[in-house]
Amino acid sequence: MSDENTTTEGDSRRDFMLKVSLGLGGLAAAAVSVPVIGALVAPLLHTKPEVWRSVGSPDEFQVGTTKLVGFENADPKSWAGTTAKTGAWVRRELDGQFTVFSVNCTHLGCPVRWEADADLFMCPCHGGVYYKDGSVAAGPPPRPLQQYPVQVKNGQLQIGTAPIPLTTFSNDSTT
After folding, report:
1. Single pTM value for the model
2. Average model confidence (pLDDT) across the chain
3. Per-residue DSSP letters for 126-139?
């Protein structure tokens, strides 16, 4: 009879330890999952800032030329320092219209440079090449250069910025 009591007592101790370890494991899993779930859900709850940034007077851009301009990101962080600033390529067309391209290659985000003699945007990282209209000419880029919305308001050329990578900018203001 003594053996039967010992087995029951051992089983109840084992059951108790199993329940405790499962409970602690579940608690640890819950503690780890809270920040992960928060990171996944947070972008859905926050609206992405869309800001019009002035990049100069339209007269500063010569017809048929492409010029690099700098501006502050749509969502600069207080700790970002210099990285809160970015750039864009502004092209003034013959008809007085402006086209503004992101400075980042669509392959891996390296900054592209404008080669005026060749009328091409060149990416130094992996040999990406874009025509002056932003379409892919050669190399690994999967799609054309991103374009910013443009407006002329109060005598200033403004571009519609959104967080990087560029997202769809809702152009609901009047020009």
Report:
1. 0.66
2. 83
3. T--EEETTS-EEES
